[in-house]
Amino acid sequence: MDSHADSDFTLANLPYGAFEAGSGTRVGVAIGASVLDLVELAQSGLLDGVCDEPVEVFGSGSLNAFLALGPEEWGATRARIAGLLSHDDPRLRDDVNLRERAFVRQRDVELLMPFDVGNVADFYGCKEHAINCGEILRPGSDPIPANWPHMPVATNRHRSTVRETGVPVIRPCGQTPPGPGAAIPRHGPTEKLDFEVELGYVVGGATELGQPIAAAEADRHLFGVMLVNDWSARDIQRWESTRHFTCKSFVTSISPWVVPLAALEPFRVPGPVQEPEVLDYLRVDSDWNLDLTLEVRLETERMRELGLAPELLARVNPKGLYWNAAQVLAHLTSTGATIGPGDLYWSGTISGFGELERGCLLELTHDGSRPLELASGERREYLADGDVVTLSGWGGADSGRVGFGSVVGEIVPARVAARA
Ligand code: MN
After folding, report:
1. What are the beta bridge partners of residue 393?
2. What confidence tens digit (pLDDT) does each residue in 92-150 have?
3. pTM (2 decimals)?
4. Cα dihedral: 153, 411, 233, 143 (round 10)
């Protein structure tokens, strides 16, 4: 078996997803251009002992049953799959019939939502993003709220509109501020549709009401990480102010694969110094930041007509995130709030201060006042109908590359509600 070097899905990665290949929905692991069907492995007895009833767990069509198990089973499963894919293990290598059943080409399957999404929240954990936005939207005032350095702030969000890559983004309608000279707000399609590049933290295991998770224990509850495009309507957001409700709840796009925390070990780095010092319950001793490259590309309708490649808009690294995943879990459970398998908490827009280090158009175009000049000759303040936005992300290189796959969304025209 080759090492699938340069693919997002090397032997170092082994991310989990759900797929449909005409035989029901199944859990699989991406490897190179293929998906390894875990139900076929389980039915052949090759996953015996990694967990109870592996055929049921991986045949359930979503990752939730596996996420519910816990770190021992996650570790045993990952080790077994890595072993079966290695050159030294003949059980899969030499079984031609099983190989034929177990390896499916990714392009021949439909990738589904990897898990049923539970609780969701959008954090605001990147200091550079907060500063950039503050300078654009509230020049002259302190961009960092008084509570921000002391806790990872967030808004609870709408779970049922979290969707897999490829689902179209219907331009949302909403209430926007009164225009110049107008006394009342308007309701209609957003004119400021934006993307946000973020990391999503996928929870496994469950807690009971009243049971906080210590930050040091977070790795027992954090299964993995995925890419999130937290689509946002900036004019609706402006009017809703800090009580984000409809401005970001129309659709949220996620990558098809969940990369286990175990695969991200080589990319764990110390985060920025937190000053003032955080409260005890938010203290972490290990490195929780991730040194990765995340990119955003835009393809307009005109680019497609001209045969131009999608244009790189942003390249960011989450290693600078101020608040990390362990602190997110510790904070949100510190009241005794429960978490469960399939909960998804995203980091907040990831930005820096460099030219390309802007994780959304709000920052890239200064809220539309400095439009982007695209290679197609077009300008963009915010997204237009027909635009396709693609997020991608990875760490490492060659046979050590660990990638997330891509998150694609095409903007389609608003559906304006008819009056009764
Ligand atoms: Mn966000």
Report:
1. 294
2. 999 999 999 999 999 999 999 999 999 999 999 999 999 999 999 999 999 999 999 99
3. 0.97
4. 50
Task: Tell me, in angstroms, the distance from the centre of ligand 1 to residue 125's CA.
Answer: 9
Question: Residue 112 pairs with which residues in a beta bridge?
Answer: 18
- For 137-169, give one letter per residue: b (16+ CB within 10 A) or e: eeeeeebeeeebeebbbbbebebebbbbbebeb
**CA 336 to CA 326: how far, in whole Å?**
16
Ligand 1 centroid to Cα of residue 116, in Å, is 20
How many angstroms is it from 65 CA to the middle of ligand 1? 28
CA angle 269, 221, 117 (to 5 degrees): 105
Omega of the bond leading into 260 within 30 degrees of 0 (cis): no
Cα angle: 111, vertex 116, 118; to 5 degrees: 145
- Going by C-alpha positions, the residue among 294, 217, 292, 222 that lies closest to residue 261 is 222
- Other Cβ atoms closer than 10 A to 1: 13
Name the active-site residue from 4, 87, 129, 221.
129
CA 34 – ligand 1 centroid, Å = 31
Say how far apart CA 114 and CA 361 lie, in whole Å: 28
129 counts as catalytic: yes
Q: Is 273 within 8 Å of 192 (Cβ atoms)?
A: no
What is the DSSP code string of 98-166?
HHHHHEEEGGGSEEE-SS----EEEE---HHHHHHHHHHHSTTS-SS-TTGGGS--EEE--GGGEEETT
Q: Is the dihedral of CA 112, 115, 120, 125 positive or negative?
A: negative
CA distance linking residue 229 with residue 255, whole number of Å = 9
CA gap 349, 122 in Å, rounded:
9
289-348 per-position pLDDT tens digit: 999 999 999 999 999 999 999 999 999 999 999 999 999 999 999 999 999 999 999 999
| Type and span of the H or E element at 313 | strand 311-316
